[in-house]
Amino acid sequence: MKADPAKLSLEFHHAHRLLDPSGQGIQTWHVRIVADTETIGSLRATRGLYWKSGNLHDRMADEQDFLAVASGQLLNPDGSFTDKFEDFIEMPGSVLVIDQLELPAPWDDPLIVAGVATNVIDRLTDNYFAVVFPRATVPGCVGAALLDEAAALLSAEPFSDELRIIDNALAAPEQAAHQVRERLRLRTRCSGAEPWNEDGEDDYEVLTPRTAAVLRLALKELSDEAWQEAVALGDEPVRRGADGLFGALPPVTFRQDHVWRRQMARTFDDLGDDLAAGTELEPRCTGEEMALHLGIARAKALERNRPRLVREVVAGLPEHRSDFDWFACSSDLFQDHDVLMLFDAALDGIEDSGSDVNQALGMVNLAPLDWFTPFGPARDPDRGFRNP
Questions:
Q1: Which domain of life is it from (predicted)?
Q2: CB of 379 closer than 8 Å to CB of 284
Q3: Looking at the 3D structure of the chain, how many domains does it have?
Q4: 72 & 13 share domain
Q5: Residue 374 reports pLDDT greater than 90
Q6: How far apart are CA 249 and CA 238, in angstroms?
Q7: Is the dihedral of CA 133, 139, 143, 147 positive or negative?
Q8: Which domain holds residue 315?
């Protein structure tokens, strides 16, 4: 039997007596791991709620086993955080301890366990949690070795010889979780195989027919919005915090005029025409790079929020194992992501070709007036505009 992640679901069980004060400090969730309708494994996830417990150190220690180990390293006997834990975590608060994993072959795969842990973390935490895993060296901790490997895939950092911790306030764990999900989806599409052929050559197709169809729909939606807003705004500047497509662009573009906005609107049309013609999709200027970034983000949102519409758009198109891999699209359809630096307020002025940072990094055409200057071969200058 192959371990197909698409068959897995999780069932969360937590019971709390209405008048039990100890439940305010500790919530123990028993998570059943189900393949189709058969329970194949389980794990325990314990929420230690710092602000709701009288003394979280004592409350966790009272549970004994791995919770007591974690309690002794994260908290002082008076219930305060240890200096080491405060130095390790950006914003120390409550903790989620994941342990007691039971998962037999063929499901005992670190990537699958990481996927399970990601879903448990999403369900039971917010940005003020530290997620604690056992290291493989913890004696008597069921499933510690698998949890240790899974935690490493999720960017959990070693805290001690016994603990590995994810700081949910940081971006790296979120990115790692995204990569785990994408790898699991890819494995499902490939029927358990890796996306390489037997000769070790990469035959993974990024822009499949179904992916291209949804991306084209996304670019069409963005084009419609851009043309409507260009007319409504005229030469008026965009105010900070404004909604809409032009409000979603970097602030350096907010004071551009109607002519500039028409050119920006046309970038969505040009990319959409490339997809319709089946030609190679490669942004030819900075404006098209931004349009493609926005298009991929919109396509991802459509897949998630408009599944019925997406099914209609791709009806009749051949399925491919790499359909809707938006992460790969963002990685492979660009030469670089320099234009995204314009969103970073700390890099204000980086668009200036005379700035030291701009010259040191070899950036080109980041100033708004240069957004439509082609990097290489130009598009037909007589192609006109979709709208007059």
A1: Bacteria
A2: yes
A3: 2
A4: yes
A5: yes
A6: 10
A7: positive
A8: 209-370
